[in-house]
Design goal:
This protein is of the alpha+beta class. It contains five helices and 17 strands. The protein has a single domain, classed as 6-pyruvoyl tetrahydropterin synthase/QueD (Tetrahydropterin Synthase, Chain A, 2-Layer Sandwich), CATH 3.30.479.10. Strands 9, 10, 11, 12, 15, 16 and 17 form a seven-stranded mixed beta sheet that branches. The longest helix is centred in the first third of the chain and has 16 residues, at about 45-60. It starts with a strand and ends with a strand. The model has no long low-confidence stretch (mean pLDDT about 95). Belongs to the PTPS family. QueD subfamily. Keywords: Lyase, Metal-binding, Zinc.
Length: about 290
């Protein structure tokens, strides 16, 4: 007997790519269970599937930075600054990134690259070990939202968030709809999606200097003038990141989707004050915010 749940959840996360650097991503999760019927004449109660399995997935990968630990592009080590924290040093073709965060902000994937297959394998093992004995098989399908228009990948952190959004390197794969004088502009959408391709979005208020940043000894030796430094304290701990300037957008606000929608609207209005703009900004799949100027 088989039991399925489509669109069980969406995982929003970022991952390390040796070519692209840190990439924000959003994947939809479908689940298929194989097994015998239990005493309730079920393979597994839908409530358990939707709550327990979703919780396992969220704990494992959602709002985290996924690290391909078999890749030479990633070095992770225990923090000398704070207990329970971890250094992560990343090399890529677009530049080097250096992070310091609570260990819960990272997931180590036993692979050379982060792909749908490698994350599926990681999740399948974790989830299957926690299922009842009557469940004999588990199939997880991870898939990106089908987006017929332009989209972008971004990474950020929200220091004021009490939940996992506070993690300084989690991200999303998002579309955006832009209207100029009530007419949709694919030209403007393309421009912003190119501008924010694989971007890290930081808040100016989180900027720190070399004297106060907390990074690994290796990072401190390899920082250069192209790096910009950001850090903050949040409920889960201390978060630091050094980002290459070519993959960075620094905004004058927090990076919630509401304020990012407003930020884009303000940039458009500044360029053409006589026009009216409507910005429909998405945060991953099927959620977002609207700003009008």
């Amino acid at each position: 007997m088989q039991l399925f749940v489509d669109n069980l959840t969406v995982i929003d996360f970022s991952y390390v790519c040796p070519k692209r650097g840190i990439v924000g991503e959003s994947w939809i999760v479908d689940v298929l269970l194989n097994g015998d019927l239990n005493e309730q004449s079920m393979v597994l109660d839908f409530g358990i599937v939707k709550k327990q399995i979703k919780a396992i997935i969220d704990e494992a990968v959602d709002h985290k930075l996924l690290l391909p630990i078999l890749s030479d592009s990633v070095i992770s080590s225990a923090s000398a600054h704070r207990a329970g924290h971890e250094y992560v040093d990343i090399t890529s073709k677009v530049g080097n990134y250096f992070l310091h965060s609570p260990a819960c902000a990272f997931t180590h994937i036993n692979a050379q690259t982060i792909t749908i297959n490698s994350v599926t394998e990681h999740l399948t093992k974790i989830i299957f070990d926690q299922l009842p004995n009557n469940v004999q098989g588990l199939t997880i399908k991870l898939r990106a939202e089908a987006i017929p228009s332009d989209y972008y990948h971004y990474t950020h952190g929200l220091k004021l968030h009490d939940g996992n959004c506070q993690r300084i390197a989690h991200g999303h794969r998002s579309k955006i709809k832009l209207f100029e004088n009530d007419k949709r502009s694919e030209t403007l959408e393309h421009f912003w999606c190119q501008r924010w391709e694989d971007i890290y979005i930081a808040s100016e208020s989180d900027r720190v200097d070399l004297a106060t940043v907390e990074l690994s000894p290796n990072a401190m030796k390899n920082l250069d003038k192209n790096h910009q430094l950001f850090a903050y304290h949040a409920p889960q701990g201390r978060f630091d990141i050094a980002v290459p300037s070519n993959k960075l957008e620094v905004v004058d606000c927090d990076s919630t989707v509401e304020l990012l929608a407003d930020y884009v609207a303000r940039q458009l209005k500044k360029a053409k004050p006589g026009n009216n703009y409507r910005v429909v900004a998405y945060e991953g799949v099927a959620k977002g915010a609207i700003a009008n100027v």
